[in-house]
Each structure stands twice: as C-alpha cells, then as structure tokens.
Design goal:
Elements (H helix, E strand, L loop, with lengths): L8 E4 L2 E4 L3 H10 L5 E4 L8 H4 L4 E2 L8 H11 L6 H20 L6 E2 L2 E2 L1 E2 L9 E2 L6 H14 L4 E4 L3 E8 L2 E9 L2 E6 L2 E4 L20 H9 L3 E2 L4 E8 L11 H5 L3 E3 L19 H15 L4 E4 L5 H7 L1 H9 L9 E10 L2 E3 L11 E3 L4 E2 L12 H16 L22 H15 L6 H12 L12 H22 L24 E2 L1 H7 L9
Parallel strand pairs: 1-12, 2-3, 2-13, 3-9, 13-20, 19-21
Antiparallel strand pairs: 4-8, 5-6, 7-8, 10-11, 11-12, 14-19, 14-22, 15-18, 16-17, 17-18
The structure holds succinic acid.
Length: about 525
C-alpha cells in the first residue's frame, strides 16, 4: 500500500537510477542500450560529491606500478577489514574503466604525452590521475553527462527527491519521488541507488549539501541491510574559517609536499607516524585532533609556502581561487584547516554485482558497501569505485526479473516539523562532538540520548525537502551511533578511547536491518510503518 495521498501520479520505466554522480551515470550508460532509463536527482544533475572530488582517481597504470601493489596499499589502508575480492575487482577493472573514459573524451593532466600521476597518503606509488589540476571529479561528471546526453533512451528527472521505495511482496518495484509538491510513483523492473554519502550529518564536512544519506535511509526503511556503519572517514584537511564552508584541501597537496603545522608553527606529524603527512587518513585526522586538544585550538595549519607560487597556482587552481575568495592566499599564507567528515565506508550491503538483499534493488558507489574500503578508504579510490561498481551494477540490473506492479494510492496527509533547520544544526553538532573522529561509550551514549529526542521524526511522512532530509539524517545518525556503540574496539576510522585495541572478533562486518534495531536498541528505525 502506498504511503502517499491519492493525488499521486505514476510512471513506468525499465530502469530507475537514483543519483547522478559517477556511479549512477556509469550505470546509466550500461543500461541505455537495453531500455528506458530514468535518472532521478534531487538537485541539478551535476550537483553530487563527484563534482567536488579534487585529488583524483587511482589506478595502477604506470610502468613502475602493478595492480598487486595497488591491491596491497588498499588492503593496508582498510586496516584488515577490506573484502579482498572486492578490492581485486576494483584494482583489476579500474584501468580499463579509465581508458574507456579517456576514449569518451576525459582530459586528464599530462606531462608531455604521458598521463601525469601524483601521490597521496598511503599509496606506495605515484598512481593518482588528475584533471585540470584539482578538478578531477568535475571532469568525470562532464564526460559522463555528455555521454549520457548522447543516449536517447536516458532521461533525467532533476529536482526530484526520492522519499521511499515502492515495495511489493518484499520486492522493490520503483520509488516515490517528490517534485514541485507532487508525489510520483516511478515503477521500474530494476531500481539502482547511487545517491552518495551522508557527510551532512556532521557539523564539519567536505560533502555538498545534497549528501544527507537519503539512499541509505530509504533502503533501510524498505528492509535493506546496512553494513559497516561505524566507519566514517574524516578528511584531515578542510578549510577552517568562520565565514567559509569546510572546503576540501586535497590530500594531493600533502602528496606534493605541503606540511601540517600546529598553531605554534611546529610540524607534528613525525611525532605520530613514520609516514608523517602521508600516513593513512584516519591516522592524520586523529593526530590533528590530538594536536588541537594539546594546543587548545580549533584548527591547525597547512603550509605550502615552500612549494613555489607558480607551481601551487598551476597545480591547484580551484583550491587557490576558492581560498582567495575567503582572503587566504595559499601560496603565501598559512592555511587554517580542520578534519571534516568526508566519506562513509559503510552503506547498503551489496555483492560485487551491486545486488542488495531486496530483489529488484541495486546500489553502487558511496551509498553501497561492498567491503572494498574496509575500515578506512584509500585516497582516490572512490571515483574508481563509482566507475567500476557503477558499470557492474548496471549490468546486473539488466537481469532483474521483477515485474513492476502499480502501487495502490491511499489517503492520508503529511506531517510538518517546526524548526527543521534548528534541529538539523543541533543534530550535526551532536554528531561532530559525540560520534566523530574520537569516540567513547560515554560520548556515543550521549549521542544516542540526544537523537532519541527526535525519534518520532524518523517515523513520519513529510512532503518538503528539508523535512525529508532531516528525517533521513536522524535515521542515519542513529544507525552510525548504534554501530559505533556495538563495536567495542578500534579499527581504521572507528576509534574509541575506551577500547583502544582492536578487541575480540574484530575482523567482522556488522550488518543492520530494521529487525536488528528492533531487538537491539530503542532507537529510530524501530517503529514500523
Ligand atoms: C582529496 O583530493 O584529498 C580527496 C580524494 C579522495 O577523497 O579520495
């Protein structure tokens, strides 16, 4: 039965894709020759995390590199929790996906005729391709959108927020989307989630405003398994100024020689890890937080002053001009930085074909969890993940045997939340302070208590974007807190001061669904519709 009022419209397509970043568009290209494809996005199609990805895309393509070394680096960064077959798929299929992209017109930076490759944290080889210096994601998005535009069977459906999945007899038959105040039931034989991450649940995040965890939340409400939710990656360096967003300062800046200094101007990374600035992200983020606590400050500095003005301007043109807008000349000034939520390793549990535990429902990219990143993603593996697993999920969706049935409309109105913006701010601060980079049972307990205040919201039906996003953010926050409480040990990006060691049986992936929440804890998600 439908949740939504009787003025609901309906439409049927062959394949429904929710999200228009690298994974969604790559899947659309795979599906286009085989039927009608509708790509739903809640904003304009280019507004996704892909568009903002700077540093690059990793692949073992140089003569000095091998896929086996890329595999090893990924496993090491993942801190013992990567699924090796997923990593093998990523590193083996990655180079082919990139060459295909180049054949579609992608312009990666070159040194002479050769592709220019840079270094990033925890990579033992220079293997990061980049475009226009620091606009790699934007270039990928441009090429994929152009390709999709040339395929007449693919239609875009922008400014439409997916509110829930259409479920019928335990199968997914499409999704309900909200556009201009009207709900449409979009029916499809295969529905593919490519909605990206959930960084907006944290007060400090590099993610765009659209990253509110919608795909994970709607999948969870429909009965999907979510896995590894305790593993949230915090990027070490985002711009930290009172008037500026937490704009990403790419890891490749440290790859090219930028240094971290505390507020007294002293380098500190050597005190924390032999790889110093190029240690894995979780290590660098924790080191920065420790240094901030020691010096009683809310930031540290990134120092590029020794790297040469022209080099820095040419290599990082987007970062240079953005920082300048906020009064910081990265070639001459120390740049105030702070870690910020960047990527969630957990998500909708899928196999290597993007299949979820729900028939007819597929997922790829950051919204999904194949286990490819383990407990901590290796830098520049996420665009690659979108390409490789987007293509695979697209191919798998072709084989869906679901026959979509129209969902019957029922009556019933929507609720509203007063002070939606105020709750959003409180939630983001709570998550940053109590369930962020360094956690413990006590802080997580406080986060759980705080979230319970808004428990009812996660069970209501709303018809505006701010309210629906808040509902999803509350659910996702609750899931992350619960998963973090459950893992009594520290692995990768999940670090607890009350359990600093890995703990017993640490090498596991915890999956959560509505039933498990229902029996394990009184938190949002327990209630049934
Ligand atoms: C960066 O440029 O530092 C971001 C790359 C990534 O998150 O993989």
């Amino acid at each position: 039965m439908s949740l939504y009022p009787c003025y609901m419209l309906t439409e049927t397509v062959d394949f429904l894709i929710i999200g228009s970043g690298v994974a969604g568009l790559r899947a659309a290209i795979e599906l286009a020759p085989h039927g009608s494809v509708l790509v739903v996005t809640k904003d304009k199609p280019s507004e996704s995390s892909t568009e903002y990805a700077q540093g690059g895309i990793a692949a073992a393509i140089s003569d000095e590199d091998q896929v086996g070394i890329h595999l090893e680096d990924t496993l090491k960064a993942g801190d013992g929790l990567c699924r090796e077959n997923a990593v093998r798929t990523l590193v083996e299929e990655g180079p082919e996906r990139i060459m295909e992209l180049i054949s579609w017109g992608a312009e990666f930076d070159r040194e002479g005729l050769k592709l220019a490759l840079t270094l990033e944290a925890a990579h033992s080889r220079r293997r990061i391709l980049h475009a226009h210096g620091d606009s790699t994601g934007k270039e990928l998005e441009r090429v994929l959108l152009t390709k999709v535009r040339s395929m007449p069977s693919v239609r875009k459906y922008p400014f439409a927020l997916t509110t829930d999945l259409v479920m019928n007899g335990g199968e997914c038959h499409g999704a309900y989307v909200l556009r201009e105040g009207k709900v449409t039931a979009l029916h499809a034989k295969a529905t593919l989630l490519a909605t990206g991450g959930a960084g907006q649940i944290y007060a400090r995040t590099t993610n765009p405003l659209v990253s509110t965890g919608d795909g994970m939340a709607i999948a969870f409400r429909a009965g999907a398994l979510l896995e590894d939710m305790e593993f949230v990656q915090f990027h070490p360096t985002s711009l930290f100024l009172p008037s500026a967003p937490h704009f990403l300062l790419s890891e490749s800046m440290r790859g090219e020689g930028a240094r971290l200094l505390n507020v007294h101007g002293r380098g500190f990374m050597e005190d924390y890890h032999p790889m110093a600035e190029l240690a894995p992200r979780d290590v660098v983020s924790r080191a920065i937080i420790s240094e901030m606590v020691k010096t009683g400050s809310d930031h540290v500095y990134l120092d590029l002053r020794h790297m040469g003005r022209e080099f820095v301007k040419n290599r990082f043109p987007r970062i240079y001009s953005t920082c300048l807008l906020y009064g910081v000349d990265i070639t001459a000034d120390l740049v105030p930085v702070s870690p910020a939520a960047h990527y969630i390793m957990g998500g909708v549990k899928t196999n290597l074909q993007g299949e979820t535990n729900i028939k007819g429902l597929y997922a790829a990219g950051e919204v999904a969890c194949t286990g490819v990143h383990g407990a901590n993603r290796l830098a520049s593996n996420s665009l690659l993940e979108g390409l490789v697993f987007g293509a695979r999920a697209g191919r798998a969706a072709l084989t869906s045997t679901v026959v979509p049935k129209q969902s019957a409309a029922s009556g019933g109105g929507a609720d509203t939340i007063g002070e939606c913006e105020a709750i959003r701010l409180q939630l983001r601060t709570l998550m940053w302070e109590k369930a962020g980079i360094i956690r413990c049972g006590e802080s997580l307990g406080e986060a759980r208590q705080g979230i319970r205040r808004w428990q009812r919201i996660s069970r209501q039906t709303f018809l505006t974007r701010p309210e629906l996003e808040l509902k999803n953010m509350i659910l996702l926050s609750a899931l992350i807190v619960e998963a973090a409480l459950h893992r009594k040990g520290s692995v990768g990006a999940h670090y607890r001061t009350d359990f600093k060691e890995r703990g017993e049986e640490w090498q596991r992936h915890d999956a959560w669904d509505r039933e498990r929440f229902g029996v394990s804890a009184e938190i949002p998600g327990k209630g049934r519709r």
